[in-house]
Amino acid sequence: MKKFVPFLSIILVFAFGVLPVGAQKGEGKQVVKEISFKEITDENKLFERAKAGISDIDKEAIRGEGVLTNLQTNERKKTPVLTTTQLLKIEKFSDGTERNTYKTSQIGILASYSQKESGTDPTVSYRFTTTIYWQDYYPNNDPSRRYTDFYKATGSETRLDSQVRVESRKVTLTNKGWSYRLKWVNQTNTYYPGSSWSYSNPFPNGWDPVIQGAIGSKLEVILKRTTSGSSWSYTLNNYHETSP
């Protein structure tokens, strides 16, 4: 993560100016052009897209990491993570602002541990998906003035081994960095979803779009093998770094 220094706020004032919030987000302006793309919601199609390495943005802006920890031995290991980003909509407003809507999905893959806990077999025990939705705004269609609005998050899981089950789930959503209100923000919300993965109003008060920082979600689950009683913790990070 990049470090930020106080004098950056001065630079931001000169670069962006202080505009009303609604004006910055294009609210109240007329949409003069709109192009929409069909969202991929089928989990299997999303998985195949991620496996093929298809993404509509530069992958270097996305950070995904999966870590599995054996709670008996404290052994930690990184696990495979697949990433795909889809462009959902392009809008142009009457004041020259352009807004692009995206979704990024991180798919974490867990292999089953053997009964002797001595390794893994080829069978996948679980597949976890976390998805974040955001909108990039370009005032006057100027890429150097971009800011990002994190407005939605979802998740899902696919159980592929009947002998492994999820004991608990925790999701932390984060919006951090210099906001377009020209102040430093560090906003988080934590949820404990059930197997249906329904969130109760993830952004109750709305979050400040950020000019430079990071948005994303962190999934933490506890898994247990029913035959041996062994358990693991699993963490899946899905972060998008934002910058003009």
Please characterize this protein's 3D structure.
The protein has 244 residues and is mostly beta strands. The protein has one domain (8-242). It is 9% helix and 54% strand. It is built from 3 helices and 11 strands, in the order ααβαββββββββββ. The chain has a 6-stranded antiparallel β-sheet, with no helix packed on it. A 5-stranded antiparallel β-sheet has the order 1-4-5-6-7. A hairpin with a 4-residue loop joins β8 and β9. The longest helix has 9 residues, at 8-16. It is elongated. The two termini are 15 Å apart.
Proportion of residues in helical segments: under 10%
Strand content: over 45%
C-alpha Rg (nearest Å):
20 Å
Low-confidence stretches: 1-24, 113-122
How would you spell out the order of helices and strands?
HHEHEEEEEEEEEE
Number of strands: 11
What spatial order of strands do you see in the largest sheet?
3-2-11-10-8-9
Please give the domain count: 1
Q: What characterizes the major β-sheet?
A: 6 strands, antiparallel
Tell me, briefly, the overall form.
elongated
By secondary-structure content and strand pairing, the structural class works out as: mainly beta
Number of helices: 3
Overall pLDDT, averaged?
A: 81
